Amino acid sequence: MAQEAFDLIDxxxxxxxxxxxxxxxxxxxxxxxxxxxxxxxxARGKRREVYGDIVFVRGxxxxxxxxxxxxxxxxxxxxNAHCQRYALSDQEILDCCQExxxxxxxxxxxxxxxxxxxxxxxxxxxxxxxxxxxxxCSLTLSLGEYHYAAYQAMxxxxxxxxxxxxxxxxxxxxxxxxPGSMSFSNRMRCLRDLKALGFQAGCGMxxxxxxQTHDILAEDxxxxxxYAPEMCGIGPFIPHSQTPFAQHPAGSLSLTAFLLSLLxxxxxxxxxxxxxxxxxxxxxxxxxGILSGAxxxxxxxxxxxxxxxxxxxxxxxxSGAESAQNLExxxxxxxxxGCAMSLKKGDHLPL
Length: 351
Ligand code: SAH
Description:
The chain is of the alpha/beta class. The protein has helices at about 1-15, 20-30, 35-50, 90-105, 120-135, 150-155, 170-175, 185-195, 215-225, 255-265, 275-280, 285-290, 325-335, and strands at about 55, 60-65, 105-110, 140, 160-165, 200-205, 205, 230, 235, 295, 340. About 40% of the residues lie in helices and about 10% in strands.
C-alpha cells in the first residue's frame, strides 16, 4: 500500500491532478510510514520553486462577532447566548490598520460575523478608506455570503482578495454542518461570483469536522483542484463548548499537514496559510504547517481586549506568535521551520 501512496504523490506532483478515487486512497494512507514526510518534502520543493522559502504575513482584524448565521460548529453562531458581542467602529478598524502598517504589515484581512453590524455600503466605505489611506497595501475581506452586486461593489471600492471557505464540497455534509437557512448551492454561487469578479479568491475547509469522511475530503480536494483558488485556508475542526458539536473530537494535526502538502503539489503557486487553528491545536502546529508547504501566517491585529470574544472554538490563540504585536517571535518560529518571514504584500503568482 505505501508504495502506491508514494507513486500517487509523484503523480500528483507531475500532473497536479488525480482521479477522485486516488485522492481518497492517498488520504487514507496519510499515517503510513514515510508517506506524509515524502509529500511534505516535495511540497517544500514546489514552494521554493515558486515563492522561495518565504512565509508572508497578513494582519487579521476580527471586525465583529455579531452573526445572523447559526453554523453548528462555530462559537460565534447566533444561538450562542454566552457570546459577548461587539462590532468595531470604522475608526477602530482604521486604527488597527494604522498600527499594523507601523509594524510593517502590508496586507489587512477583515473577518467577521454576517448580516449584522455592517451594511454593504459601510463595508465599501471602509474598503475605500483603507485602500486610500494605505495605498501600498492589499485588502482581503472574509465577511461571508453576499449577492453578486454586493461583491462587485466591494471589489470596485478597492478590496483585492476575498476568503470564503467552501467548508465542504459535499452537499449532504454541508447540510449536516449548517441549518436549513444556509445552502450549499449559495455557497458555491458566492465562490463562482468572487472568481468572476476578479478577486484573488480563497476557499477551504475544516479537517475533522463532524460527519467528514476520507471520501468527503477527497471531494474537497477535487473541488479545490477544479476551482483553482488563489488562496486556500484549511485547519483542524476544534470544538466550542457552546455549540451542538461541543462533544465532537478535534481534527488531526498530521492529517491537516498532509492535506496542506497535497494542496501545494496540486497548485504550486497557491497562497496557503498555516492557520490559527493549526497553531491552537498543538504547540508547534504552525511550524508543522510551514514544514508541510504552507506559506502564509495571519497573526491577530484586532484590539487585544476584544480578541477573546472572537471565539470560534475553544482555546483559540491570539497571543504570542499569533499576535501581530509579536512579529519577532513569529519571525523566529518561521525561521525554525526553515523559512524567512516576509512583510511584503505577497500576491498570488501565476505559474
Ligand atoms: N462569516 C465568515 C467568517 C467565518 S469564521 C464566513 O463565513 O466566511 C472563518 C472560518 O473559521 C470559517 O469559515 C470556519 O471554517 C472556521 N471555523 C469556524 N468554527 C470553527 C471551529 N469550531 N473549528 C475550526 N474552525 C472553525
